[in-house]
Specification:
This protein is 79% helix and 0% strand. The longest helix is centred in the C-terminal third of the chain and has 29 residues. The termini are far apart. The relative contact order is 0.07.
Length: 253
């Protein structure tokens, strides 16, 4: 800090002007994310100026999420799993952008698989203890099924190995659908657990205020596996329709 700003760390942390600048920067970035969210609601494949601007904002949002993932990773000494566990969250706006562009369904599926795989494998590495298992994960398991710390860690290890295993099975075509069903349900469970395990009726509003954003940022954890299931289902029916059309064609003798 001395080399960067010419002041000591103590001076930096106690400087009121710097504190105000940081607070204003956070508000500014928050405003940007609101704009990114609005852009994601109005983006389409129409060739209009508004849509072109929306695409720029959605792309900027995806890039910002990559930078945010980097900052989270840097905060804990550049654990690569911390960076890659945000792959689904980064992929959500990126895939939205791709879907409004000339992008093949097969490429969409591939990128979806990669993003989902990276996120769940990264989560698995924390759950099995390869990286320090987050204490709040243990607390959520204890609160949900009333077990001891040791039992909660054991359950997390099983779930972690499943995450890693299924993160690999994603790339096995015949096992894609059951894998996505599990990851959808598991993503939904772990996302909703942020509210459920911290819910107290007497302080409901405070709990919602603290944890709703934790749920919102994790919606892609179950929404993208659901999207993959939709793409697979749609592709299957499309192939069946093609087969019916071909089967109904009169033979030429």
């Amino acid at each position: 800090m001395n080399k960067l700003l010419g002041i000591t760390w103590l001076e930096y942390t106690s400087n009121e002007a710097i504190e105000i600048a940081i607070s204003n920067s956070i508000l500014f970035v928050g405003g940007l994310y609101i704009l990114f969210a609005i852009a994601s609601l109005i983006i389409s494949n129409k060739a209009t100026l508004v849509n072109k601007i929306a695409k720029v904002f959605v792309a900027a949002g995806a890039i910002n999420l990559v930078f945010l993932a980097f900052l989270f990773s840097k905060e804990i000494f550049m654990d690569f799993a911390q960076f890659f566990e945000y792959a689904i969250q980064v992929a959500a706006p990126a895939l939205l952008l791709f879907s409004c562009s000339k992008f093949s369904r097969q490429k969409m599926k591939l990128y979806l698989k990669i993003a989902i795989s990276l996120t769940f494998i990264s989560h698995g590495l924390y759950a099995i203890g390869y990286y320090p298992t987050p204490g709040n994960w243990v607390d959520m398991v204890i609160y949900t099924i009333s077990v001891s710390d040791e039992q909660a860690l054991g359950i997390l290890k099983v779930a972690g190995y499943l995450d890693i295993f299924l993160g690999i099975l994603i790339f096995v075509p015949k096992l894609l659908k059951p894998t996505m069903v599990y990851l959808f349900l598991w993503g939904l469970a772990t996302t909703s657990a942020r509210i459920y395990t911290n819910l107290y009726i007497d302080s409901l509003w405070t709990i919602l205020e603290i944890y709703v954003h934790e749920v919102l940022v994790r919606i892609p954890h179950f929404l993208l596996p659901l999207l993959m299931l939709h793409l697979v289902w749609k592709e299957k029916h499309w192939l069946l329709d093609i087969g019916k059309i071909k089967g109904s064609e009169p033979s030429i003798r």
